[in-house]
Amino acid sequence: MLYSMVLPGVIYFIVFRYVPLGGAVIAFQDYQIFNGMWHSPWVGWKHFESMFAYHDFLKILRNTILIGLYQLVFGFPAPILFAIMLNEVRLRLAKRMIQTFFYLPHFLSWVIVGGLMFELLASKGMVNNLLLWFGQEPVLFLQKESYFRSIVVLSSIWKEVGWSAIIYLAAIAGVNPSLYEAATIDGANKRKQIWHVTIPGIVPTMMILLLLKIGNFLELGFEQIYVLLTPLTYSTGDIIDTYVFRAGILQGQYSFTTAVGLFKSVVGLFLLFVCNRIAKKTTDSGGLF
Fold this sequence. Notes:
The chain is mostly helical. The chain has 2 domains: 1-44, no CATH class; 56-282, MetI-like fold, CATH 1.10.3720.10. 71% of the residues lie in helices and 0% in strands. The protein contains 15 helices and no strands. Helix 6 (92-103) crosses helix 9 (145-173).
C-alpha cells in the first residue's frame, strides 16, 4: 500500500527529472531542432568556450554570485527568525492573522510584485513621499545601480519569508516540551530558552535547507530579476539567467543555453558536496547525505 502511494511521485521524478537529464548532451552539439539530438553535429566544448569568452561573462558571474550571497546571508535567516518570533505569539487569533498576512505574498506572481515595487519606489511613490515628508530629496531607487541588489533581496524576503517559515514552525513544534520545562526549572528566561532549546532543536532542519539552498546557489530566479531589471541597472543586476534569455533563448541557441545550465548545475553540485562534507564534520546533523 505504501509503495502504491509513493508510485505517482516516483513516476513524476523519473519522467520530468531523470529522463530530461539525457538532453544535456546537446550542450556538446550544434543542436538543430529538425535533426534532433541523434543527428545534430558534435562540437565538443565550443559552447562552453563561447560562454567564457563573452566579454561581460565575468561581470555577469560576479553579479550572480553577489546576489546569491546576499540572499544566502540575509534571506536564509529571515524565515528562521520569523518562525521563532511567531512561535512566541500566544494569542491564537493574532498568530493566525500574522501568518495569513505573511503567507499571502507567496501566491503573488513576480510580475505583480515587480509592479508593486515600481509603484512603491517610483519618484512619486510611497517611499519617496515619506522621504519628502522628512525633508529628503526623492531617489530613483530602481534606476540606481547601488540599490538594485538590496531591492532584489528585500523583495524576495518579503515575498517568501512567511511561506518558508512553515517548515521551521513544524520543526519547532517537534521540539520536546519537557526541554522547555527543564529550562524553566533551571531559571532560563524566554531568550535563553530560544537560544539553548529552540535553535538547537531545529538545527538539523536548518542544515538540510541550507545545503539545498547552497546547491541552488546560482539559481536566483529569472522572473524576479527580469521584472526588476532596467537598462540603467544592467551593470549590477544582469545575471546568468537574464544573459541566457537574451543570448540563447531569444536567438534559438538551444545548445548554448544548455551549456550554461550545465555549468550552473556542476557548480551547484560541487558546492553541495563541499558544504555537505563540512556540515558532517562540524555538526551533529549528519549533513544531507
